[in-house]
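Many introductory courses stop at the sequence. We go one step further.
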Amino acid sequence: MTACSSSAASTSEAESSGYTVEVEELDVTAFPEDYPLIPADDFAAAFEELKAANLSGDATSYQDVADMFGVDGAYYVNNDYDAGGVIFEYHGWYADNDTNVVVTFEVSGDNLDMYAYTGNGIS
């Protein structure tokens, strides 16, 4: 998964709880020091729920994903991707056992629509 910086301002920062990952290039292993790491078993259950909801089309928004994991994700600042005027953002959720998931959201006005995800250390 790669990302390019964009000068476009994020419209969704107000939707998250303020967790941010300050990296120049997308680094899925980086997370904020103050992030409330999710217990590994809870994280694994939420990841299974995410996979099932993705297949059924039930996971469509940032809030859907945040509800599954029980905490807001961390926004990777400086890593928005501009695909010809369509902006994508990356948000990560992190477990206490070094696994995580990074979800790509398409910015649609004030909404973040789930686009794709990748699990790291979990499948």
